[in-house]
Amino acid sequence: MSKTVNVALIIPCFNEEDVVLALYSEISRTPFPEGTSVTPVFINDCSTDTTRQIFIEHQMTFIDLPVNLGIGGAVQAGYKYAFRNGYDIAVQMDGDGQHPPSELHKLLKLITDGEADVAIGSRYLTKEGFQSSSLRRTGISYFRWLNQKLVGVTVYDSTSGYRALNRRALELVSGYYPDEYPEPEAIILYALHGLSIRETPVIMRERQGGRSSIRTYKTVYYMFKVTLGIIFLYIRLKFNGKRHLL
Amino acid sequence: MENVISYRLQIIAITMALCFMFFIFRLIARGKLREEYSFIWITCTALLLLFSFWRNGLEVIAGLLGIYYAPSLIFLGAIFAIVIFLVHLSVVNSRQHQQIKDLAQEMAILKKKLEDEEKKKAS
Q1: Distance between A190 CA and the closest CA of chain B, angstroms
Q2: Contact between A189 and A163 (Cβ < 8 Å)
Q3: Cβ–Cβ under 8 Å, residues A41 and B83
Q4: Is it the case that residue A31 has pLDDT exceeding 80?
Q5: Going by C-beta distance under 8 Å and a sequence separation of 6 or more, which residues neighbour residue A190?
Q6: Helix segments in A70-133, DSSP class H
Q7: Shortest Cα–Cα distance, A223 to chain B (Å)
Q8: Which of A1, A53, A77, A238 has the most CB atoms in a 10 Å sphere around its CB?
Q9: Which residue of A has its CA nearest to B97?
Q10: How far is A135 from chain B (nearest CA, A)?
Q11: What is the largest CA-CA distance in chain B?
């Protein structure tokens, strides 16, 4: 176990100039478990504010998307980068400061101990920290129910974007990753490819700046889109095999 | 059923259909319209021409299909064709969406790699 575990911390950012620097310095200050080397990789999803200048000024590692791809495409770009550059683990973390770096070791432990291919940080396992609105929570229990019915996997916080993936999972998501609101759909993808998914309680904060990609007036569209996405992905994988994905 | 349409109108219809066909061919020749899309437009112009020459064609086909009011056959056919073509365009659009995403990611990763190499060279 002397080999260093290389971790890419993928942080998609779209107009996060208010928080991105604070997040970066927090990551640099956080002590990570011994034998792991954590590299934050920011993804600039074509921000229109000064996010990009901040990256350059402070010499942060970042991938600069030429067009705005949305959260799914941005995260996948990071996963592709991590996979091709031989990282052992890739962790996806929101760029708005909701996910404290100090909780990262819990996700990493599940992967390095070989307990899971995909580790998800959940804010609902223990009711600590920021719990989000009741409407959002209702939606999340609905996705939990849907996932449970379809693939028999119970994920309490299926919209959580704080996730760690090992190389097996990375190879999969480099080939295909859902588009618009990818988190609940990705669970179906992992489960149907036989990857083991584990959750660990994580204390989340309220977002430090920017706006959530899921706003109230969009909730109905969100529920509809994700339900469709989940069901069609399920049908595609279950009945057509995997050939349609790539 | 002779002279349901006046000759003047028929000449106008034929001229219009020929103009449309010429316009489509010119687009293809200039490379502004891909052949795969031109197929549907050539078929459309061919149908237009056919019905401008075959004066009673619409009535005959409507009669065969048991459609009482012949012009409604035009609407039926046109709407059907439009819906099919729109679905086709959505499919094309989705494919391009996927391709653009892949290209953008590929480009961003390559750009990063290039910058890293240059930095390595500089130091």
Answers
A1: 20
A2: no
A3: no
A4: yes
A5: A117, A118, A169, A172, A197
A6: 70-84, 104-112
A7: 21
A8: A77
A9: A69
A10: 31
A11: 90
For chain B, how far is it from start to end, CA to CA, in angstroms? 90
pTM of the model: 0.83
> Any bridge partners for residue A118, and if so which?
A165, A197
3-state class (DSSP) for residue A178 = coil
CA gap A237, A235 in Å, rounded: 6
Residue that has been written with the tokens 């009011």 in this structure: B69
Q: Which residues of B touch A8 (CB under 8 A)?
A: none
Model pLDDT for residues A167-225, shown as the tens digit of each residue:
999 999 999 999 888 999 999 999 999 999 999 999 888 776 555 655 666 778 888 88
Q: Which of B105, B107, B111 lies closest to A73 in CB terms?
A: B105
Count of beta carbons in the 10 Å neighbourhood of residue B10: 13
Strand, coil or helix: A244: coil
The three-class DSSP label of residue A89 is strand
Chain B residues near any Cβ of chain A (below 8 Å): 100-101, 104-105, 107-109, 111-112
A108-137 as b/e: b if 16+ CB within 10 A: bbbbbeeebbbbbbbbbeeeeeeebeeeee
The size of chain B, in residues, is 123
DSSP-assigned beta bridge partners for residue A8: A39, A90
Helix, strand, coil percentages (3-state) for chain A, rounded to 5, are: 45, 15, 40
Q: First-to-last CA distance in chain A?
A: 35
- Judge contact between B85 and B40, C-beta under 8 A: yes
Looking at the DSSP bridge assignments, the partners of residue A72 are none
The total number of residues written for chain A in this structure? 246
